Amino acid sequence: MVQEPLLLQIAVGFLLYMQRPYIIGMFIIAVPAMMQSLFFMSCFLQFCGSRKLLEKLDKVYAKFLMAPAFGLTNWNQIPFNTKWMKAEEQSNELVAHFQVMFGILLIFELFLPRRNIIMVFLYWQLMRMGVTMENVQKMRSGKDGNLNKKFALVHQQILGILGKSFVPNFLPNYYQKLANYMKNSTKIPTQTEAQNSKKCSIM
To answer: What is the dihedral sign for C-alpha 83, 68, 147, 11?
Structure first.
C-alpha cells in the first residue's frame, strides 16, 4: 500500500460506490485512470511516429482538459515527458482535494436524516491510512504528499472561518483539539517511541 498510493484511491472509490451508491466517488478512480490512458495513447502514437495525429490530440488535450482543469496553458510547448509528469501531479492534487472536501461533507451529513456513521468512520480511517502513508514517504523524500497539503490548506480555511466574531468561543478550541488529535494519530513514531509505547504499531 505504501508503494502504490493508487490502491488507496481504488479502495476509497469502491467504498463510496458500494455504500450509497456514491457514483461521484468513482471520480477518485476515473481521473488517474483517464490520465494514464491518455498518456499511454500519446506514448503509442509517438512510438509509431504519428506526429501529426499526436499534435492534433495535444491541441485537443490543451483546449478541453489541461488548460481549464489543470492550468497547463502552455501544454504544446512543454517537452513530452515533462508535461505528462506535471499533468499527473495536477490530477493527483485534484483527487486529493476532492477526497478531503468529500470527507468534510460526510461529517456535515451526520446532522441530516440520511447520515451513515459507519460510512463516515470507514472513510476517515482510509484518509488516516493515506496520510500515514504519505508521512512514511516524507521520511524518505522530505516532501509533503498531496493529502497533507490539502488538509493543511483546508485547516487554515476552517481556522479563518472559526476566527470570525460571530463564532462561539468554544468551537475553535474544540476544533483545534480535534485537529491535533487527528494529526497525532498519523504521526510516525520513532524507534524509541515505538518501543516505549504500549499500543500496537506496525511502523
So the answer is: negative
Q: Say if residue 48's pLDDT is above 80.
A: yes
The answer to whether 201 touches 194, Cβ cutoff 8 Å, is: yes
Residue 129 near residue 147 (C-beta atoms within 8 A): no
Q: Tell me, what's the pLDDT at 166? A: 85
Task: Kindly list the distances between the CA atom of residue 31 and the CA atoms of 20, 51, 73, 98, 122, in Å, as whole numbers in the listed order.
Answer: 21, 26, 19, 11, 22
Contact predicate 67/75, CB 8 Å: yes
DSSP 84: H
C-alpha cell at 130: 493515506
Please return the burial class of 73, using the count of CB atoms within 10 Å of its CB with bins 0-12, 13-18 and 19+: exposed
| Other Cβ atoms within 10 Å of 135 Cβ, number | 17
Phi, psi of 48 (to 5 degrees): -80, -10
Has this prediction a pTM greater than 0.85? Answer: no
Residues in Cβ contact with 130 at an 8 Å cutoff, skipping those fewer than 6 apart: 5, 8, 12, 99, 145, 147
CA nearest neighbour of 175 among 148, 193, 155, 192: 155
Cα separation, 61 vs 67, whole angstroms: 8
